[in-house]
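sanity check this chain:
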Amino acid sequence: MEKPEWSNKIKTRYLSGASNQFVIHGNVYDRLLLPPAGMDEPEIGNLVDYLVDEQLRKFDLILSYELGAGLRIESGQDFFQKLRFSGSDLPKDPAQAIGYLDHLIRFLVNLRKLSPESSENEINKSERTLAGRNHHIAVIFKAAELIFPVSKQTRDYQLSSMASVVRSWSHETWFLDQNLAVFLISENLTDLHQLLANNPRATEIELQMPSPEELSDAFRRFSKSYPKALANFQEKPELPASRLTGATLSSIEHLLKTREYTGKALVEDDLADLKKELVEQDSRGLIEFLEPTRTLDDVYGSDAVKDWMRQDIALWQQNDLQAMPMGYLLCGPVGTGKTYIVECLAGEAGVPVVKMKNFRDRWVGSTEGNLEKIFQLLHALGRCIVFIDEADQALGSRDSGSGDSGVSGRVYSMMAKEMSNTGNRGKILWILASSRPDLIEVDLKRPGRVDVKIPLFPSEDKEGGYLLIRALCKKYQLKLPENCPQPLVALIPRLITPGAAESIAIKVYRLVKTRKVDPVEALRDCLDEYQNPIPSDIMEFQIGLAAREASDLDFVPEMFRKYAQ
């Protein structure tokens, strides 16, 4: 088993002298597959285990600090005992711990400059054997975002002074001359104090979610630890690995422990549902999967739109990505079936649909941290559709003003960067939906982020309205004549949306079941004195927005093209 790429990056930067401080973020609290020692098989451990046992195994002293647990010696107890610091208690308070570490590192720098023949006043007997040597020292800050959080106040002097001291270890000459390595572990980079997160002398290391290859190695290891749970995959560990890509190793291990205890083996049919469950669990409610049980055949009308989408799906399935759009914008009045058509598109393409839920938080930095977590999960999922409903509200704006402390502007910046990442082409298809596309920043709608803008409209005339109601009544096993009965023609509403038509179909179903009447009679009663849920002026305003937004006039029916002027 080869060492992970991020591990080799740390080694190269440290040994070359390019950097002695590393900010590790991303999937930092997951379990890791540790490289085997000799001929042994790989073990499962955490990030700190890996750093101590593998990355830093030749270091003379490794210290760690965690809020609550305080300062601890991870490795090098004998070395530490020879120092005059060994007689004092290790501090727990953050400010005291930083001061203690700064004093210790400076002491070691000075000790290196002394010779073993130094006088008793300068150096004690136990330290004499250490003098004149450049020992390798490492400091690991666990959950660094809790020790050095984003400053909520401009003049938070104590927090800024602590961060400033740690940052100085990465650029002051005497620390650079010392064999010193500092690791700041934080799940979200945006939660870490700006002085450390934006330190140009520190190396940023992002831990990705486990790849299918890494999961295959893990399942080979798990097959011996959980033989009952993996009885059906002993000879093909790559199958559950590929199907569960996007889930953390920790959540998979918890699942296997439960299945092993109950004696219930995993089967192939379980894997799709389990992936959905595990990924939603790992996301802490930030995303959810929509079940694509329909195809574009279930979409009534919109033939030009369906033809375009099918062409894109064909390119996607052939892995011909040069003309594959980065994203779609679905716009149209409320109730025109934007979410429905996304589900149908996903069912046609055979890929999961991930819906971003409300990732905004009231705490400083939490919103940005939530977005970081979402992006990390999306990158691990493989091919998927990311659906953002009410995009005009969710995506933020370039100029956020002072009302939200700049959160909206930072959300806009993060989303704009991610949506234009060409590395996502063919992996992530962004679909934005809004009835007010005019409120979405122009830069977010430009080609390269949103290449295709698709308008969705209500029924074009009374005949279309009737056929829409009839199609939705079929969903409730209600049979209506193929052609609209003459008494109903005058009652069919103008500009009826799929949402409004379904509401009518439900009312028809209720009347048929409660009054035992014919569906035609029930429909007539429902349409008598019917009032459209969307006022006509708002409906026409939103139709105009959608028509003008369309990237191709073929998407706009003839009767609505006057709105595109």
Observations:
- Residues 94-113 form the longest helix (20 residues).
- The chain is about 40% helix and 10% strand.
- The radius of gyration is 31 Å.
